[in-house]
Amino acid sequence: MSGYLLVKWLHILSSVVLVGTGFGSAFYMFFGNRSGSVAAQAVISRLVVRADWWFTTPAAVFQPLSGLWLAHAAGWPLSTPWLLLALLLYAFAGACWLPVVWLQLRMARMAQEAARDGTPLPAPFDRHRRWWEGLGYPAFVAMLAIFYLMVAKPAWP
């Protein structure tokens, strides 16, 4: 296998890890937050934070590095419209994701403290949850658009 194909395979694999872990984490966090169980929210939020550190973060760092290398190796200038749009969408998704990480850390801490103390979740938890969801939707749509651009590589005039 050539170096290009190896990097391309790793790039595709890391994109699946990035989006798959993000979607899976969002699924469990979304429904865990609606379960009414502080104990479940504490466990799920702790595991979501862990998944972000172990899987999402390395993939999120590898994606642009490998993507830029692949573009260079294939001879695509960064001004190629589909590639430029994909990079802008990735930056947008990242701008949504960074506050989500902070929110997840706060939510996990609040849920773990409430579970430990046998108390309800504090009021800021719900506000954080709404922001977490509100930032997650556009980031996920941006990632889906990037998948389309990477596969279709549409030619625009």
Describe the structure.
The chain has 157 residues and is an all-alpha fold. 86% of the residues lie in helices and 0% in strands. The protein contains four helices and no strands. Helix 1 packs antiparallel against helix 4 and helix 2 runs antiparallel to helix 3 (81-117). The radius of gyration is 18 Å and the shape is elongated. It starts with a helix and ends in a 5-residue tail after the last helix.
SS elements, strand count: 0
Q: Which descriptor suits the 3D outline? A: elongated
How many DSSP H or I helices?
4
Q: Tell me the helix content.
A: over 70%
Strand content: under 5%
Distance between the termini: 35 Å
Give, in order, the helices and strands.
Answer: HHHH
- Overall mean pLDDT stands at 95
Biggest sheet character: none
Give the radius of gyration: 18 Å
Give start-end ranges of low-pLDDT stretches.
none
Based on secondary structure, the structural category is mainly alpha
Provide the descriptors you would attach to this structure in a database record.
mainly alpha, 157 residues, 0% strand
